[in-house]
Amino acid sequence: MTEIIILSLYVLALLLLFAYSVLQLDLALRYRRSVAVGSAPAPADLAQKPVITVQLPIYNELHVAERIVRQCARMRYPREKLQIQVLDDSTDDTTAIVARAVEELRNAGHWVEHVRRGSREGFKAGALRDALPLAQGELVAIFDADFLPAEDFLDCVLPHFQQPEVGAVQTKWGHLNEEHSMLTRLQAFMLEAHFTVEQAGRCASGYFLNFNGTAGIWRKSAILDAGSWSAETLTEDVDLSHRAQRRGWKIHYVLEHISPAELPIEMGGVRSQQYRWMKGGSQNARRHLPATLRAQTSTLARLQAMSHLLSTSVYVVLLAVILLSIALAKVKNTYIEFEYVHYGMFFFLSTGTLGAVYFIAQRSRISGASDFLRFLWTMLCFLVFTLGLTLHNSIAVLQGWTGHRSAFVRTPKYGGGQWHSSRYARKTPYRIIVPEVLLLSLIGLGMYWGFTRGQFALYPIQIMASCGLIWVITRSFMDSLRIQAR
Q1: 237 is catalytic
Q2: Domains identified in the chain and CATH numbers
Q3: Which of 178, 229, 250, 345 could form a disulfide with 125 if both were Cys (CB 3.0 to 4.6 A apart)?
Q4: Total-model pTM
Q5: pLDDT tens digits, residue range 323-367?
Q6: Is 89 designated active site?
Q7: Among the options 26, 88, 89, 479, which is catalytic?
Q8: C-alpha dist (Å) from residue 226 to 99, 126, 165, 321
């Protein structure tokens, strides 16, 4: 009987993954239809340019703080109508670097302010919230420290605010260092699906979407109407997005304009970013799912909104699939004989469906056989890497669901410099490596049980998860050793 229970849970987990992949495919197809029809033309230029505030939340960004301040000062916009606020919560030499840059820009005629708080209360959300009363603009642009907005950013985004119901406009992220390593290529591969298929598909269909925390503009009145920024979750951008959209505001997505930024280049940075996104995602699901279920909208729109909120929780389902595959390898045919490969077809269907989604996201980059082979290899590496992060991300998700509080751990950025000699580089691996090694051992035991019985139907997920864990664990140790050596 135990076998039937484990198998039932295993099949349920696979069905949940398949359902999620189908909803992703729906977004991909809607994105493709919107591209075929053509994007709606941007409204005409505003007759009178409004005052705009650019907010730059910064915390200990020695390598990139000055760059972002100067880059924003280069934006093509009347200086008397462009207020730049550097929201500096730093506790190191970043403050002195910012102060010098701000003074120099002020002397050159720019409207730049260096805003300091007495504490780091509320982290990024707190900095944005506390500085909002000081913002003179009716529109508020936000950039993280590692971004490099184009000089024509405001010209491209502002016209969309002629539609009075638009509360925010988000632009697509680009990547300054995508080709640095396989690690950065895989991150770019993942983000391309989000910023091409998910965001564009949701926008084209009128579904809920989210502001991505940076590289976009909010209407100040929309922020205030939605209750302002809140530090109740680690992803304050998703939280505000859902509150504002429930109040009737719309978020518009501009696929055509790209705002480049730096991707994490070492495993510690990837882990800290993933932890924040995963935990913040489940915190927002806990916070907004009840209201989403009650929303007066179509069933599909409600399902897509739920999928959006629950997307990070998919990692818990993936972890369940891995653990249940180990249990099944132990108890197989103790109660009744059947072949698991038939039930495992849902895993291959989910993988194939997600492959189609990512292919649509990467379609503009594929022009021949070599590009297609590169896509297949990257897709395989992405699946393996994702499974390798499953335990790490699942713990973050579960902490979010259970209300576990933690600090906002920023992702270190190095501005293209020697990251392993930076004071921001983490010198010791995360403690999560210990349970990751334990999980790897359990998977090995499950594979041994399958081998002794000549049963290999569960091997695909187990081999991929093993390779992913070895990759993540090894890279974590190698990065730490490289930092310690310097």
Answers
A1: yes
A2: 2-29+312-485 (no CATH), 50-298 (3.90.550.10)
A3: 229
A4: 0.94
A5: 999 998 888 765 545 565 566 677 888 899 999 999 999 999 999
A6: yes
A7: 89
A8: 33, 15, 13, 39
